[in-house]
């Protein structure tokens, strides 16, 4: 019998993690602009979260950080000379542009792309579309390397189909799995795909376009009877839910979300129930948890994880939440109430991912879910699938190469570029990636 399991591919947080205030509409990013970050702590927090998921008996992988500063982009924008001269010139003339080329934002792999597992696709392959992330300059430059990374890890064409990032920039703005969820009775059963898109609000622009979600569904050969396109509420967008995964998460039979997530919840729930009759919708009422509490605490940016069935009953789920949710009394009370009720969610784990949270990235932002059969998993590059020893090795690498304090001003020092590239060189050796990155060409 073919067994399917969910693999969470977390973004390994890169050595240039910093707070440059680059994401309009992301309140945490704006609020912490200019603050000092701690890249070492950030990466260790991320690895500790991966370890916690593994200790639940779940499968865990990771995507490596991208090479930053991205010199290829700086050269394309007219900065010339040696690598160090490029950094010095850009730092002098365009420090904010330099910060864009230094962002460690590929850590948020929920935005790396959208994935369709093989039971759902017309050709029985696992399909990947890297997100174009056109809404923000620092994120748009991730797409090429993300595409290369996904092909590197999932190389076997017998099992995996890779599409290029969508063309058309913001006209087909695509932010990947952060606006996508899959409902199913078990990971290996055919799933129903929820694609949530936005329409510009009064305060903030929408990043995910409906036409982009539709194109991804076409590319992935999904059955239209098993896809639902849902408009995000403008209230949520304008309150700071720049991706729908800030206000809701789907897993297995459960849709766990805020009452004000969708523009027309009644119609959306009716279509979801029609296409996925097994669904259990667990909603936080606005008078219990406000949108603001939701966005500050990242309650719904939790990982909702189906626990491996060790007693034959199966279907039990754990919520992996950021500690900010534990610290918010209204949110904590709602979580406790959800646990006490008769539903599949019966375990909760709070993890500290504050360094990422301060840039608007919670536990669910940090992972890309890939459902794989045993054969598909065996065909994936095993360097990127984790066990306790590999996490130890990555922690050691972080401790050897990362700073514990970084300010946006430090990015202008050309010596920091060398430091970052040295770390990336060491990682490519550890993972036997060859000359993978642009700076190694
Ligand atoms: O795209 N923050 C990211 C956070 C992404 C969160 N992902 C999900 N919700 N799935 C973003 O806004 C901030 C970088 C800075 O300001 O330095 C940033 O890119």
Question: What do these coordinates show?
Answer:
The chain has 441 residues and is of the alpha/beta class. The chain has 17 helices and 15 strands. It has one domain: Succinylarginine dihydrolase (L-arginine/glycine Amidinotransferase, Chain A, 5-stranded Propeller), CATH 3.75.10.20. Strands 2-1-15 form a 3-stranded mixed beta sheet. The protein has a 3-stranded mixed beta sheet with strand order 3-4-5. The longest helix is centred in the N-terminal third of the chain and has 17 residues, at 39-55. Residues 19-23, 26, 29, 103, 105, 108, 110-111, 139, 178, 242-243, 245-246, 359-361, 365 line the site of N~2~-(3-carboxypropanoyl)-L-arginine (SUG). Residues 19-23, 26, 29, 103, 105, 108, 110-111, 139, 178, 242-243, 245-246, 359-361, 365 line the site of N~2~-(3-carboxypropanoyl)-L-arginine.
């Amino acid at each position: 019998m073919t067994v399917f399991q969910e693999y969470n591919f977390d973004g390994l947080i890169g050595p240039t993690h910093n707070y440059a205030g680059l994401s309009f509409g992301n309140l945490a990013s704006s609020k912490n602009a200019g603050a000092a970050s701690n890249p070492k702590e950030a990466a260790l927090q991320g690895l500790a979260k991966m370890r916690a998921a593994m200790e639940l008996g779940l499968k865990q992988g990771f995507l490596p950080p991208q090479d930053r500063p991205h010199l290829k982009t700086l050269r394309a924008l007219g900065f010339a000379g040696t690598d160090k001269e490029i950094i010095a010139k850009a730092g002098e003339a365009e420090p904010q542009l330099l910060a864009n080329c230094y962002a460690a934002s590929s850590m948020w792999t929920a935005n790396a792309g959208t994935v369709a597992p093989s039971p759902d696709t017309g050709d029985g392959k696992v399909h990947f579309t890297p997100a174009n992330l056109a809404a923000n300059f620092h994120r748009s430059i991730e797409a090429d390397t993300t595409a290369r990374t996904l092909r590197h890890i999932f190389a076997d064409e017998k099992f995996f189909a890779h599409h290029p990032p969508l063309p058309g920039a913001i006209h087909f703005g695509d932010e990947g799995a952060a606006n996508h969820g899959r409902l199913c009775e078990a990971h290996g059963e055919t799933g129903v795909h929820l694609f949530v898109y936005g329409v510009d609000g009064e305060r903030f622009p929408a990043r995910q376009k409906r036409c982009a979600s539709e194109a991804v569904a076409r590319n992935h050969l999904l059955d239209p009877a098993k896809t639902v396109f849902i408009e995000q509420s403008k209230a949520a967008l304008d309150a700071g839910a720049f991706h729908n995964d800030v206000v809701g998460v789907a897993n297995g039979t459960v849709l766990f979300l805020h009452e004000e997530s969708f523009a027309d919840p009644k119609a959306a729930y009716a279509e979801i129930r029609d296409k996925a009759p097994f669904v259990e919708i667990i909603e936080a009422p606005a008078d219990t948890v406000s949108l603001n509490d939701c966005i500050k605490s990242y309650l719904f940016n939790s990982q909702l994880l189906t626990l491996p069935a060790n007693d034959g009953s199966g279907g039990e789920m754990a919520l992996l939440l950021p500690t900010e949710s534990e610290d918010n009394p209204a949110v904590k009370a709602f979580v406790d109430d959800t646990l006490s009720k008769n539903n599949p969610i019966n375990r909760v784990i709070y993890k500290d991912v504050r360094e990422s949270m301060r840039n608007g990235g919670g536990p669910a932002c940090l992972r890309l879910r890939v459902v794989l059969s045993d054969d598909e998993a065996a065909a994936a590059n095993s360097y990127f699938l984790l066990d306790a020893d590999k996490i130890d090795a990555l922690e050691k690498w972080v401790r050897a190469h990362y700073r514990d304090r970084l300010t946006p001003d430090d990015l202008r020092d050309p010596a920091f570029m060398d430091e970052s590239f040295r770390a990336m060189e060491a990682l490519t050796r550890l993972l036997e990636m060859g000359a993978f990155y642009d700076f190694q060409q």
